[in-house]
Amino acid sequence: xxxxxxxxxxxxxxxxxxxxxxxxxxxxxxxxxxxxxxxxxxxxxxxxxxxxxxxxxxxxxxxxxxxxxxxxxxxxxxxxxxxxxxxxxxxxxxxxxxxxxxxxxxxxxxxxxxxxxxxxxxxxxxxxxxxxxxxxxxxxxxxxxxxxxxxxxxxxxxxxxxxxxxxxxxxxxxxxxxxxxxxxxxxxxxxxxxxxxxxxxxxxxxxxxxxxxxxxxxxxxxxxxxxxxxxxxxxxxxxxxxxxxxxxxxxxxxxxxxxxxxxxxxxxxxxxxxxxxxxxxxxxxxxxxxxxxxxxxxxxxxxxxxxxxxxxxxxxxxxxxxxx
Amino acid sequence: xxxxxxxxxxxxxxxxxxxxxxxxxxxxxxxxxxxxxxxxxxxxxxxxxxxxxxxxxxxxxxxxxxxxxxxxxxxxxxxxxxxxxxxxxxxxxxxxxxxxxxxxxxxxxxxxxxxxxxxxxxxxxxxxxxxxxxxxxxxxxxxxxxxxxxxxxxxxxxxxxxxxxxxxxxxxxxxxxxxxxxxxxxxxxxxxxxxxxxxxxxxxxxxxxxxxxxxxxxxxxxxxxxxxxxxxxxxxxxxxxxxxxxxxxxxxxxxxxxxxxxxxxxxxxxxxxxxxxxxxxxxxxxxxxxxxxxxxxx
Lengths: 324, 298
What we know:
The complex is a heterodimer. Chain A has 10 helices and 12 strands. Chain A is α/β, with parallel strands linked by helices. Chain A has an 8-stranded mixed beta sheet with strand order 6-7-8-3-9-10-12-11, sandwiched between helices. In chain A, strands 2-1-4-5 form a 4-stranded antiparallel beta sheet, with helices on one face. Chain A is globular and about 65 Å long. Chain A starts with a strand and ends in a 5-residue tail after the last strand. Chain B is 72% helix and 0% strand. Chain B has helices at residues 2-9, 13-30, 32-35, 76-112, 114-128, 132-146, 149-184, 187-194, 199-235, 247-255, 264-291.
């Protein structure tokens, strides 16, 4: 058993809904329902789910951007929301982020050198210029960009190159954990492969751990060891990526896997659900019953009355369904 | 074809002319003490003997006084040059003061949101609910009552800058707040937070440079408004004193003689004011359309 780099315990995150009038009671939307995940050092965990399932909220909570209402985020053994300002700055050296849109995540007014070195300037004050330049050269080389790129501006690069710059920025403080929120979704498919290969090479070389958030099951399958499937703010199934995707146990995971278009499969059978088209929505409260019951093809009476617990399928695999 | 594409890149003729006019005016303003034939603040330099002389192109004109003289025998070219100087300085001062106040408060409101945003924006709402002229009259009235005549002479420009800016900052605050909210939703701001940059640094280094173009556009358009407000206040007698006149004060002085046939005392400074404000407005409108088409509606 290797060391646990990231562990969240019962994360709950709620957003205030706009009030219809200033006299009405504040109502809230629960976006994360007691989310617990665990990531071993040097491994990668994928988070998949449709839009609005809370994937990105989880990422923001893990990155220390939005304090959850309850629950803990432990990174390298430290609860980052219990740390004081100085402690959090120290802890931030250990985790960095890559964002979805490489056009939005790099400030257009700064040179690549400024952008990449900003984490050192911010988190490692007093680093000498020589040391800083050495580190810049180091990370640029690691992501496969020429040293001359340092003095250019982000708009002079293509999407894939920009994402490499974003990765270089994430690497410069030599973190152990990288939170990647849809890092390749905005890129062309051919470029996606390049960036994914780069991320895997870096993982091997530097022993990085990835929390990899994506809606693209193929991408998640390529890069992660384990996967957690999110639905309406709950983790409905978690296990080894290949096993979960090959033989999904939760009906929601089954629907997700079935929804992936398969190329070269000839005339596929069209999958139509018998259930009326209905989009389940987030609920303000934690009412009893399964959140997926409304659209689930396997629903029974028990699904409306009892909230399913995570049932182990195998020692490393669990699904939150009464019939798993 | 080549000339056509070149034409499209050049600003319209009106903007070129406006820029030239403004540039000439700024040079005149900066070097006024060297260019002006006399110093209107120096009582010894003019004589009552020369009073009410018409401009040179009229009968009875004097070649020493290109645009004629006023009721005290002051050369109009000189008083207008110095008046223009005061008007421009007060206008710029008010714009800079209002912009600084508005940008800082707008950034804070947009960045932190919630309660902070609510408080700042409600205060802004209260400030705009009073008409600029009314507030300015009030402030200069209070200042006049509190300060001695000599002190008032020295403080008048600052009082004017303050009373004009106190209403104008709201426009900056609102625009900057809206732009800030757009920018903080973008990933580079989130990236800066993950890096652990402190909030003031994120605002100053990342957000501010990206919203500066809209601030510059409002500032240019506001400059014309600030100059006009100053002229209005001075015209009403709440602005610059006659011994240290701005364009507005000059128009007020001239206004008393307008119907006795001495039209030039009022019309000459008024013409200069119109040209100045028109030039600034033309440039401001062009900048707005050019840099920030989104603002066109406002």
